[in-house]
Write the structure tokens for this entry.
Amino acid sequence: MKRILVISNNNACRSQMAEGWLKYYGKGHCTVSSAGLWPEPLDLEAANAMSEAIIDISRYQPKSIDTLTNEEFDYVICLSDDIAKQLPTFSGSPEIFFFGFPDVNKLNLPEKEIKKAYADLRDEIENFCFDFVHQKVHPLI
């Protein structure tokens, strides 16, 4: 079983979405955790967008990266480009990846565009997670 940690700034949206997709596509082949540098409550728009794709993240709890630094991971996936200099040292020797996804909560979008922005983000993260699982965890035959 591969161990994956997904990190974003707040562990409220992007990393929670990625955790949901990685658990879905990697079921039985990996364990997945997510955390943030500055945890905030779960973004309800993110939870709603994921539920539309039949993935329930509504019970996920944001966690601080500080609570996971003693655990060993095979892969650490950072979903924010700006956190590279703030990452702690991890136990073991995880392979670290950086993939920047927009923080839709900070885009100040008009109300009518918010749902679409979250759905687009959900779909981008799904594609990324599908590819990641099948390239690093459980190759397609």
